Amino acid sequence: MKIALAQLNATVGDIDGNTHKTIHAYAQADAQGADLVIFNELAITGYPPKDLLLKPSFVRRNIAALEHLALKLNGKAAALVGFVDTNASPDGVPLHNAAALLHGGKRIAVAHKSLLPTYDVFDEHRYFEPAKECTVVDVPLAGKSRRIAITICEDLWTDDECFSGRRYHRRPIDEIAQRGVDLIVNLSASPFVIDKQAFRQKMLAGHARKAGCPVMLCNQVGGNDELIFDGGSFVVAADGTLTNRARAFETDILLADLDSDEKLIADYPEALASVNDALVLGTRDYVRKCGFENVVIGLSGGIDSAVTCAIAVEALGADKVLGVALPSRYSSDHSVSDAESLAKQLGVEFQEIAIREIHAAAEETLTPHFGERPPDVTEENMQARVRGLLLMSLSNKFGRLLLTTGNKSELSVGYCTLYGDMCGGLAVISDVPKIMVYDLARWMNERAGREIIPESTITKPPSAELRPDQHDQQSLPPYDVLDGILRRYIELEMSVDEIVADGFDLETVRDIARKVDQNEYKRKQMATGLKVTSRAFGVGRRMPIAARFQY
Amino acid sequence: MKIALAQLNATVGDIDGNTHKTIHAYAQADAQGADLVIFNELAITGYPPKDLLLKPSFVRRNIAALEHLALKLNGKAAALVGFVDTNASPDGVPLHNAAALLHGGKRIAVAHKSLLPTYDVFDEHRYFEPAKECTVVDVPLAGKSRRIAITICEDLWTDDECFSGRRYHRRPIDEIAQRGVDLIVNLSASPFVIDKQAFRQKMLAGHARKAGCPVMLCNQVGGNDELIFDGGSFVVAADGTLTNRARAFETDILLADLDSDEKLIADYPEALASVNDALVLGTRDYVRKCGFENVVIGLSGGIDSAVTCAIAVEALGADKVLGVALPSRYSSDHSVSDAESLAKQLGVEFQEIAIREIHAAAEETLTPHFGERPPDVTEENMQARVRGLLLMSLSNKFGRLLLTTGNKSELSVGYCTLYGDMCGGLAVISDVPKIMVYDLARWMNERAGREIIPESTITKPPSAELRPDQHDQQSLPPYDVLDGILRRYIELEMSVDEIVADGFDLETVRDIARKVDQNEYKRKQMATGLKVTSRAFGVGRRMPIAARFQY
Lengths: 551, 551
Known about the structure:
Two copies of one chain form a homodimer. Chain A is α/β, with parallel strands linked by helices. In chain A, 37% of the residues lie in helices and 20% in strands. In chain A, the strands form four sheets. Chain A has a seven-stranded mixed sheet with strand order 6-7-8-9-12-13-15. The N and C termini of chain A lie far apart (59 Å). Chain A folds into three domains: 2-260, Nitrilase/N-carbamoyl-D-aminoacid amidohydrolase; 275-475 and 520-529, Rossmann fold; 477-518. In chain A, 57% of the residues are buried.
């Protein structure tokens, strides 16, 4: 029996386009002799469709597309297609996150998702009604009747070790194991997080051993706003061995022959490489799915804009990227020369636009209104905002999406200027801590076997260059300390006391926690940022702003 | 039997402050002879605590506060206090949205919420576990044992007429009516929406008749980020008659004597006045709870900034508001004079800062980089961004929160500049359609019995004044048409076809729908906006950005 896992790159809302891709992939898999083609979760609408689901007309269109697919996917192979199912009520609720088994021009069965993730970036209880039990169907495949359990993503995401906090009262895998099946399939849209693929495989291996049958997962691939779906669809045998795996970060059709002993396992990149590949895919898809081809990036000569630029070049091609240095009176000589050598090494167009004139005009205009007040952070922000104005003007004039370059560490503590360096449509490395930005830079140079990120950019002390002789460490602890505190405070939700018990200084931890909390208002207005850690700023972290935090 | 409804203004996260307010209000009600004091939902944490609930230390502090209250609320009166309950598991999950009945220094009973709203601005399934059944307790009050059903907000929010779309499988009111009780109490945090108070009263009157007993609801009051809680706590008798009502938009302790026939019903403002009062309260609380006292507003001479300024003055006092006119070479004479007379009529400080110099410097700097490209929206945005830079500089230098002035109609179609006029910490009228902005202006003048909003501001045709002879209606349909389409498309989720069937022009509707969808990226980065309609931009409307919409 041959089963194809078709991991496709859907655009959210593009029902026509997604349907077309589904038909095309089915034809390929059918021609290759697949008995069953499994698509990723909600293949028709793309995942996550968010509040498009509240539009009854959108749900109706998706049902019409499914009916169209039932007629079109009429080869030898059966197909399992993710869609939004709806009861017959006139207002179209309740909805189900569903999968339809299509064969011979007909809809044979429909499975509904049982476990609805409603945590982190997921909001499925907002839209869907859970199934009360798992769907198990008997399907004639390759001349024999096979009993198949159809599950959708979270349905198999139950594991004592890692998910004790989730409040599920049922574990579909227990029901399935009790009933006894020949095969468990899972339609998935599981976003990338560092090291998550290994966990997926381990968890499903456990399920396979428990149920005594193979388990196969078809994951979505591609970037949709902040989420990057990494593909890497796979099959584990009944004994838990990994037997087949699709490519990571690419559209792929994996054909798994369950009667063969041959293993076909595509590489899945190691941690740092996976972050790079995720950011590349996330950037490419965000830019293109927003209707852009070209981007513009402000190059400061520092590490963040350098890494962002290298990712953009890998995502879109050097000819689509414009790098702009925007020196001020406080810029060091190396800031422009480092920016320029980066641009040269990446082969991107480079421009230099001095902010001097506008900065001076702004000061002149404002001086009478500032009275006797001494210079403070206002003057620093002003420069960042002049840069934002210039970059947005280039963005508007030439239709280039502006990429913003802030890293997670500085966004955490508000070491960034709203409407200044925070300007832009996509925050490429907003979920990458500063130490990891350095690691990525070194990794990029190593992979290339040459200097792409200038060595001086990597080795010089980081500075915002918004006043004379400014350095990050005048306002912040060393980045290894900062990142250690931030990971505990933000990703692990540890209290100040608990972080101190881990060996950090009380005053430092308190100061950092306070800065994180006080800067919610900035992050409220930040660009969409690509998620790579277990907790990113954005839809997965919903903090109040006008609030008081106690330490 | 005397029951006090203590509608308090909690600051989210401020457990110490909220506990202190609770003790103070209890003492007052106890001194007035109350037998039972009912507080609003989650009085200890403030509503909505959002992802603070994911911090185990936060939940522990709230439990400690409840234990403290159990000891402190030790007068004659019993008390019902909203808090976050937790099971004994070490990671503090699952949580319950809960109410504790405290009396004589002890915790007598705890009720958990059954229905967890997970729609619009609500995310309760993200945090809480639902109760399996309603809590009914027998409490000795005023010398007799009374059987009381304790419900929390959404538990009573079931009504065939208006909420058929919600997927609740239980209706606590049915269970309560079947068991038979003397009294139903409801701890609530129900945010303001135009006309919602009348609906609340009607719905609870129905419940009272069904259960054959009085129903009383204690609502939170105050602004917490985008949500404005309007108070207006009330009691309906067993026959559905409204007998008592607390003040709207103010902290209040309503003492209801259930044995008296006297009606004590505070006014609840009519629709337009309620919008004004909501925006005033929402602005005051956002500014103050963020730690500010003063605000700055850009005054264009137009209706939006005029109404925003009037609201700020009512919220904070004229001495806390700075109005700034920022004329450009395209500004009409009346734009500055109208701004100035507004400032004079409201008694606020007024400054004029011309953007000419900075605008010219920006053009000079950019011209060589624009090449042969003709002027377009870039040049218009540039002016708005220079204004943003100036206003933010005043905000930074003087610690004044910048209020942004865009209305819902222009935000809907993207008739606004990101990092320009969208700069600011709070979008005061971002949920008020343009036509309603005009209505508010006229209402303000009428209430004052004099011209506050200059007549010429109300009567002149609206213009962004970003190029010569620009008027809104060059890019947009008349505002009554625009607002009619937007209400159907955004609030009612109607499709293009359905809106056309309501009598609007196909091309216009399609154009507006496209503009709404294409401008998600701007609204992603907008300031927190005060919610007054059934569907506001922000947390209650979660749309994808890199998506394709089909019409």
